[in-house]
Predict the 3D structure of the following.
Amino acid sequence: MHPFDVETLPVGRWRNGGGATREVVARPAGAEGFGWRASIADIAAAGPFSAFPGVDRVLTLLAGDGVRLTSPGAFDRLLHRTGEPFAFSGDLALDAALPGGPCRVLNIMVRRGGWAARVERPTGPVAPPAGHAGLLYVLRGRWRAGAGGAVLTPGQGVWWDGVAGAGAGDAPGAGSLVPLSPDAVALWADVAPVG
């Protein structure tokens, strides 16, 4: 498992000036195109979202009063509850509005036909399935990553790589992700290979 802290991730500013992205992981590493990718975005201004043809996305509000995503003829959705995931096709052209000001979101993207992703909001132990990749991000409380692993607090998390042949440090077999406090809430992105 690979730990991360949002505040220490490199920040990439958007070309349109409407926000910034902190990439957590993109796999396979160094490839021309990702199979799956996890990032955290700070959305500072209303505007269009970049299209990602052939990619499925799950966006989840982490902080702020929400973001309204609109794709003409497809959906008009206000994400206003922290930790509630919303899945949509990256092929769609969409615009984002910020009814309550800037916000932060978790963005999971998977290459269609290679990977499938789902995001849940656990309050109890998480046991990543063998062969799956994924990420756990702490919303509230304290969590432990694996037996004897790091203690994680809000804004921190771990990711793991389920690709066959990955090194021992990449596999989540060291154990479950376990809440350590009664108020513990996390986001778990389970990224499963297709086929």
